[in-house]
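Continuing the batch. This is chain 6 of the set; chains 1 through 5 are on the previous pages. Same settings as before, nothing changed between runs. Recording input and output for traceability.
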Amino acid sequence: MPQRPNILFIIADDASHYSAYGHTFVHTPCFDRVAQDGILFANAFTTNPKCAPSRASILTGKHTWQNREACLHQNYWPKDLPVFPDVLENAGYHVGFTGKAWAPGDWKRCGRTRNPVGNEYNTRTLTPPKGSMISTRDYGACFDDFLDDRPKGTPFFFWCGGHEPHRHYTPGEGMRYGKRLEDVTEIPPYWPQEDVIRRDMLDYAFETEWFDRQAAIILARLEAAGELDNTLVIYTSDNGAPFPRVKGQMYDDDFRLPLALMWRNRTQGGRRIDDLVSFTDFSLTFLEAAEVPERERDVFAEASPGKSLQDILDAGGSGTVTQNRTRAYMGRERHDLGREGDLGYPVRCVRTPRFLYVRNFAPERWPAGNPETGYTNCDSSPTKTRILGLKEQGEEYYWKLSFGKRPAEELYDVVADPHCMKNLAGKPEFAVTQIELWRDLNAELKRSGDPRIADKGDVFEGCEYVGEAWHSWAHYVAGDWKPQNY
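Output for chain 6:
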């Protein structure tokens, strides 16, 4: 009987760019190898463009609004919300993680004795590159500790969660370590076309490359042990790059994420897939690959809108290889605080192969946080500082794109307009598409029990924030506001 596969899940923190997709300013040979020996996905979508809620959907297989408190940033894990690592462990897998797991949030309050991802292996450290702000986590050594604890003959699930390329960076670290401005051949049209932006992108690329090298160490360990061929490897990120109009926002450059999958005993290599896949698909993929009994998989299948990726693994070939993967759904509630009453910014989206439809339920609010609190749903960065500086000089073009208020409905032709620069909502020639996509989204929200569509969205607004106590509207009013980006 064939041995059940190991499962290695590699997830970067705030990464959008890998060289397998043609990005010239970043070099990621480990990600590229997974893609070359396996499958590169062109249309993989998170459910929520922020760390903790994105990771929650990976763990539960559910839409973000189905995860209750776990759909928020800096909140707590609901007591009765099942996660796939527990199911794998019950099925005989050795489970654990290194680096960043489900975070930031409080998983202890519900009575859990460990992070929802599994057992923690984070005691080993290294010396990061001098002058950088890279984590001291020695991912490879922590993986060795995990393997040392594995009972002989037991398959494993291991989550390698990078702390990179999450901000903050030491300005100029990318160029100090050999990266060049001329490698940045394209700046997205929603940022100023200036060298200050290029330098910021190179700092981000340097940290992306660092984590990619750590992931390569883990693959090398498995290959040396003769276990790589029977390991299902998935390499992705939780949300988009930590820049204005990307991380935390509801456009394609944030929630359409890099994804490569390799299982050399099972999949043909060198494939590029255009089918739309979602982070809700991961848990069911893992449970099916691990041959978990169907009655236990049903716990996830009944509540999950996801579909195991096995159909893509089995299909062979490239391009669009299935008939029923034509929709991805995303949402957002409260991320970082920074509005009156600590309110969030509720949004729901549906993505098709051609269009992105966005429904902003509170367009009167500022999408990236209030101006007076510093747009807290956007990490501090040289790019952010430059855009705000241009606004002070009277140039508001880039500010409006990143920080300005948005209409109730947005519609983008992502084939013709991949950066979502031209809102087609309200244009007569797209009226039918706009209506159809709203009906589609509305039906899925109702089917999946979204409180927001049932006029019960206050349930999200009232959830307790578990970050620092001073990070709230009350402290802003009192004059001792201390904003912090996560």
